[in-house]
Amino acid sequence: MTTETALHPEELSPLGHAGPPALPAPGGAPRLWAVRVPGNGSALAANAPSVLDDSELRRAAAFRRDSDRDIYVAVHVGLRLLLGSGLGMNPAEVPFIREDCPLCGGPHGRPAVRGTPLHFSITHTHGLGLLAFAATPVGVDAETVPAAVDADEAGLLLHPREADELAALRAERRPAAFARTWARKEAYLKGLGTGLARSSSADYVGTGRAPAAGPGNWLISDVAVGDGHAAAAAVLTGGRRTTDSYKTGGPRPA
């Protein structure tokens, strides 16, 4: 399945209202919220001391660049506010868990909320964050368009067809094409729960203006985020399925 129309995220209210009261139907396009620094993220981050847990605060403090810290904090505060609103609980008390890894079975698969069927994914890069919610497994990714030399080098990590397509483009078009391809790929791999433990060359998502069909029962859509970035979301359109030896399914209680 494919879509030629990019998804448009909502701008997340700094007050954290407008939580996900109604999720899309299983397999439908995910609901998306955008966080930007500077912008709505600055007001969201003001809630950090009362919303984030100790591990999140420690990770935030470890960032060396203020800009990276600011977007991390804003996205994680936004996630807790949306989940708290949608689930009717204190945002600071949302019970996060990790699903089992589809590769090794360890507790480092997709993030989830204990005891709910809600699926979500987050991403952040250089002042932009995205949050995705769906009724089935979902992944979202945002990328900053890289320098030309970086796009050429990283293009070697893509699926062979994607690498050939990238090499055939004019040099000035490769960075944007690489960024959208990588965003699609990471969104899909995050949805699977493997992340980059599954080779970035294993799956074909396409380098063109619209994502390629598939893989499998996954619907991949580009997300409109403005110049300088590329973003994509991937959502499972069916029930449980197996991709090679990688099984995906809904959150399981801890």
Low-confidence stretches: 240-254
Give the number of helices: 7
- DSSP E strands, number: 11
Strand order, largest beta sheet: 1-2-6-5
Order of helices and strands: EEHHHHEEEEEHHHEEEE
Look at the helices and sheets and give the structural class.
Answer: alpha+beta
CATH superfamily: 4'-phosphopantetheinyl transferase domain
* Helical percentage: 25-40%
CATH architecture: Alpha-Beta Complex
Strand count, sense and closure of the main sheet?
4 strands, mixed
Overview of this protein structure:
The structure is a single chain. With about 250 residues, this protein is of the alpha+beta class. The chain has one domain (about 10-20, about 30-240): Ribosomal Protein L22, Chain A (Alpha-Beta Complex). The chain has helices at about 40-45, 50, 55-60, 65-85, 150-155, 160-170, 175-190, and strands at about 10, 30-35, 95-100, 110-115, 120-125, 130-135, 140-145, 220, 230-235, 240-245, 245-250. A four-stranded mixed beta sheet has the order 1-2-6-5. Strands 7-9-8 form a three-stranded antiparallel beta sheet, with helices on one face. A hairpin with a 6-residue loop joins strand 8 and strand 9. Helix 3 runs antiparallel to helix 4 (about 65-85) and helix 5 packs across helix 7 (about 175-190). The longest helix has 22 residues, at about 65-85. It starts with 9 loop residues before the first strand and ends in a 6-residue tail after the last strand. Mean pLDDT is about 90; it is low at about 240-254.
